[in-house]
TrEMBL record:
NCBIfam families named in the record: BGL
Keyword Hydrolase among record annotations: yes
Record-given protein name: Beta-glucosidase
Organism in which the protein naturally occurs: Micromonospora sonneratiae
Enzyme Commission number(s) of this protein: 3.2.1.21
PANTHER family referenced in this protein's UniProt entry, alphabetically: GLYCOSYL HYDROLASE, LP05116P
The reaction(s) this protein catalyses: Hydrolysis of terminal, non-reducing beta-D-glucosyl residues with release of beta-D-glucose
Top-level taxon of the source organism: Bacteria
Family, similarity comment: Belongs to the glycosyl hydrolase 1 family.
Stored InterPro entries: GH, GH_1_N_CS, Glyco_hydro_1, Glyco_hydro_1_beta-glucosidase
UniProt keywords, alphabetically: Carbohydrate metabolism, Cellulose degradation, Glycosidase, Hydrolase, Polysaccharide degradation
Amino acid sequence: MTELANPQAQRPDPAGSVDAGQLIFPPGFLWGAATAAYQIEGAVEADGRLPSIWDTFCHTPGRVKEGHTGDVACDHYHRYRDDVKLMADLGLRSYRFSVAWPRVQPTGSGPANQAGLDFYRRLVDELLDHGIEPWVTLYHWDLPQALEDAGGWPARDTAARFAEYAELTHAALGDRVRYWTTLNEPWCSAFLGYGSGGHAPGRSDAADSVRAAHHLMLGHGLAVQAMRAARPDHDFGVTLNLYAVSPQDPAASADVAGDADAVRRIDGLANRIFLDPVLRGEYPADVVQDLCNVTDFEHVRDGDLAIISTPLSMLGVNYYSRYVVAAPAPATEPVEPYWRQPSCWPGSEQVRFVTSGRPVTDMGWEIDAAGLSEILQRLHREYPELPMHITENGSAFVDEVSADGAVHDPDRLAYFDAHLRACHEAIAAGVPLRGYFAWSLLDNLEWAWGYTKRFGMTHVDFDSQVRTLKSSGKWYAEVIRRNGLAAQ
């Protein structure tokens, strides 16, 4: 039996240092990369897998850019050995991947599909054979379509089904996998999936989006309890996409107080609606008040918050950009069309998101590395002490294979460099940051953007499936090798 890869190496000293002109990260800092099942695996009908909500969404005309689907994606299901070899060549210490729920439980309930689990057994063994610590994310948005047909995340029963699935997967892989993340970015699942409808399953109902958020967290708590009962020595956590939130430049504002309230509202819906239940066992009172015209919270039952706040041993932080917001436009001004569209900000639809003049990625997201250090230090200052990992951080840019056969991506390299410096700054300030997972190992299906946006350190030709390591990937391998960055 393949054993866990050196779990003691994952307990670094809490502080980084500056040594011989370099920013050195703590000993044992966990360097990794991350992916998600539907974005890379392909093989959507192999070995008993049935459709997920993303299969359905992608095959619905008009939902995904250029009609792209995950039917083949990066064909990782068949090419995983080559991809693990790529990870080993990069020097990755850990690989964060998600398990596809419809491979393990094709209809979302009942006994495990052993053929589906066997793929993940093979993947885990391959990782361990190369000295790479496997890090499992149980849910990265691919709800079995049968459960969506039964009500999806707005239905309470889905939380119970998720805990059952988590227990089955943990039982199959727990002898070799120590690190377990329950959910990836429940904000997206709830508010893009059931609020704006921009993500699968593509529903637009404000009250349903709030119910979905609660049941996602309830499923998280139930899953942690079930897995910890079997193996209390494992590390369990959740991954949240968090944002520093700032008001627009006061010099450009006609309503500074309104801008401050916009910050409070968006911070509440982006960050605190998940952080407070998970880490404090309570909903923020102001967020509940903001949502009073959306829902009466009757879906929250006695005992739910105690389950949701089941103690964790780690917190995953996904960070991409900062939100800069402003008060709603005065009533005398024309209402922007998007205000009348389904919103991922229930109860705060008229808050304006503004630009601040920073450079942007190909997604249009402003680049603000300082926001990463800001959110990490805020977590350390305001919430219970908990080891943290950056479970996603990365950027999309337009990449092409050059005439020399290489892929030069200096903008992505600069993005990684700046954000790793922000991580080092946070560690030096006392933040218990234990690791960093670059997003992403491979170019992949960027959800509703299809294959039109590239986040990978490795270029993928989606016709030939040829992988080409980009200059950012080569740079990251050197960062891992020396456990640090050159000082500026």
